[in-house]
UniProtKB/TrEMBL annotation:
<dbReference type="Pfam" id="PF02133">
    <property type="entry name" value="Transp_cyt_pur"/>
</dbReference>
<feature type="transmembrane region" description="Helical">
    <location>
        <begin position="12"/>
        <end position="36"/>
    </location>
</feature>
<dbReference type="InterPro" id="IPR001248">
    <property type="entry name" value="Pur-cyt_permease"/>
</dbReference>
<keyword id="KW-0812">Transmembrane</keyword>
<feature type="transmembrane region" description="Helical">
    <location>
        <begin position="84"/>
        <end position="105"/>
    </location>
</feature>
<keyword id="KW-1133">Transmembrane helix</keyword>
<dbReference type="InterPro" id="IPR012732">
    <property type="entry name" value="Thia_CytX"/>
</dbReference>
<feature type="transmembrane region" description="Helical">
    <location>
        <begin position="149"/>
        <end position="167"/>
    </location>
</feature>
<feature type="transmembrane region" description="Helical">
    <location>
        <begin position="42"/>
        <end position="64"/>
    </location>
</feature>
<dbReference type="GO" id="GO:0005886">
    <property type="term" value="C:plasma membrane"/>
</dbReference>
<feature type="transmembrane region" description="Helical">
    <location>
        <begin position="117"/>
        <end position="137"/>
    </location>
</feature>
<feature type="transmembrane region" description="Helical">
    <location>
        <begin position="316"/>
        <end position="337"/>
    </location>
</feature>
<dbReference type="GO" id="GO:0015209">
    <property type="term" value="F:cytosine transmembrane transporter activity"/>
</dbReference>
<feature type="transmembrane region" description="Helical">
    <location>
        <begin position="349"/>
        <end position="368"/>
    </location>
</feature>
<keyword id="KW-0472">Membrane</keyword>
<feature type="transmembrane region" description="Helical">
    <location>
        <begin position="374"/>
        <end position="394"/>
    </location>
</feature>
<dbReference type="InterPro" id="IPR030191">
    <property type="entry name" value="CodB"/>
</dbReference>
Amino acid sequence: MNSNSQSIPSFHFFLIWFGAAVSISEILTGGLIAPLGFAQGLAAIVIGHVIGVLLLGLCGIIGFRNKIPAIESTRISFGKFGSYGFSVLNILQLVGWTAVMIIMAARSANDISNALWGFNSTSAWCIVIGALICIWIATGIKNSAKLNYAAISLLFILTVILSTVVFKDTSIFSRTSDGTMSFGAAVELSVIMPLSWLPLIADYTRFGRSSKGSFWGSVSGYFLGSCWMYIIGLGGTLLTANYEPSAMLLAANMGIAALGIVVLATVTTTYLDAYSAGVSYLNIHRNANEKVIALLMCAIGTLIAIYTSIEQYIDFLYYIGSVFAPLFAILLTEYFVFRKTGIREGHNLFSANVILWLIGVGLYYQFVKYDLPFGSTIPVMLIISLLCVVKEWLLTLFNKLRS
């Protein structure tokens, strides 16, 4: 993808990641932070997102420079077989995200349609939303620019209206919500959302025109969109005493516009999940058709959404943090500190890094038990990055002694 006529401009990256961030899941997660109150909740949201999007942008640079998808870049630090394992884990989390997004949207859409017209069928809404995502996938990332511009423009207008309705009651700035939430846990919930996109971002930045454009377009789009959605969720929960997005939308009396927000936001976000599941599958089977696989993943996610009840949302977010925080701590350290920037052919598995990753997973689940000031992700990534430096120093020393 070397031709500028085929590459993606930075503004399109802004739209892709702004659209990815404008989602029901982000509004819901922002609502979970409401027990802190508005001021502390806002601080946690901004701090978590600054950290998360910087990590996201660095992973995007790897994709741009190496012209490879995100999960394939793990071959740099873990070898071919290591990347196969992470491909499977990434496909599982992406199908899980697809199902979570569809069922969240279907429930909200059903609440709204039931209130407006008496139409009550969550399964039907799952099918409708899944079908729309498949249409988006079939259009393709390189052919969807005009469609994406139109969708994001409409979504932007609808979100501005929702924000106006939520924040016209200034008393929410001094309220708190029922429940408990520590500042560290709120930061963690804010870091995890951009972190969940680390195994995907290079799937798109590999098509960029420039490193700066890919980085800043992606980072600014996601930061602005995600912070905005979190803040809407935070304010809406303080206003309605209910963190469910449908309750906020119904309380705002937005009518059919509320349905538009739910459906459009879900399609523009979940499309990326299903598409990247197809890309990750290609890391294992090179000859597969990524679009066909993406459509299949969307269909599987839709079926899961119809036939299962996905309630352990926070546990699912913690799973993502435990798997991908130590993984990308190792990759980013080796790539940017030790300049290991290429895939080393003939190296099937780097066992030392796999062991470091396992240590990181274990540390993550230990740290979530404690109320750390900045959550669990950042301490785990810093510790694993430091251990990676120590590992490299020991290997260098060993090689000198042996020679």
